[in-house]
Amino acid sequence: MWVRFKFTGMHTVEWSFFGIKLAPTGKKITWTGVHFWRIVDGKIVSKESLYDFLDALKHLGLIDYKGFPQE
Prior knowledge:
Elements lengths: L1 E9 L4 E3 L2 E3 L5 E13 L2 E9 L1 H7 L12
Antiparallel strand pairs: 1-4, 2-3, 4-5
């Protein structure tokens, strides 16, 4: 089973992002990702998650990312 999620909020606390400390920016941020659960006999036996870090960094103004070129 899987679920896609999207959170929106304000960056108001310090984050440690891959070991890099990010001071609060006060900027609006949108965070998206997907959770995957493997279910066996009605029980969750494993979970994996993927997050869109590029979009989060773009909202914080740390990178200039416009997405992949369209063909």
